[in-house]
């Protein structure tokens, strides 16, 4: 009789462990989606002030490439968002791509950057806005880091479209 109770007890314990494991797995997946979704919200949000300034520079002043509010302060491990805009002033449709590099050439610092590196197509007088997310490492030295943001004209390889824009990230 005791062996049957032991077998049933072992089966119940196994079921409890499996159920707890499933709950932990589902909880972990839910947390993962929450973190991924939160980072997408930050990446996609371009504050109203930056968006209106981009609109003014691109449409009203006809600048080919604009990066308003190019100096931002951020705490280590936190994120800051820049906005860059491109206006096609050519007479034909063009393909462009944004490229951002650290001015000192340190590729490890470029890992702080998150932006769309895919090409985009603009018709004549059409404009495009893109966000650039910068998240300095938590252990980085407090300093001012300068990045060069440029738009590449893919129809003319090697040619920078407009002027190179400077981004100043002041890490506290």
What can you tell me about this protein's structure?
- The chain has 172 residues and is of the alpha+beta class.
- The protein has 2 domains: 1-44; 49-171, Immunoglobulin-like (Sandwich).
- The protein contains 3 helices and 9 strands; from the N terminus they run H-H-E-E-E-E-H-E-E-E-E-E.
- It has helices at 2-44, 48-60, 107-110, and strands at 65-66, 71-74, 80-87, 94-102, 113-115, 120-122, 127-134, 143-153, 159-171.
- The strands form 2 sheets. A 5-stranded mixed β-sheet has the order 2-9-8-4-6.
- It is elongated.
- The termini are far apart.
- The model has no long low-confidence stretch (mean pLDDT 85).
Primary descriptors:
alpha+beta, 35% helix, elongated, 4-stranded antiparallel sheet, single chain, Immunoglobulin-like, 2 domains, 5-stranded mixed sheet, 172 residues
Helix tally equals 3
N- and C-termini, Cα separation: 71 Å
Structural class: alpha+beta
- What strand line-up does the widest sheet have? 2-9-8-4-6
Q: Any idea of the CATH class of the largest domain?
A: Mainly Beta
Number of domains: 2
CATH topology of the largest domain: Immunoglobulin-like
Short description:
With about 170 residues, the chain is of the alpha+beta class. The protein has helices at about 1-45, 50-60, 105-110, and strands spanning about 65, 70-75, 80-85, 95-100, 115, 120, 125-135, 145-155, 160-170.
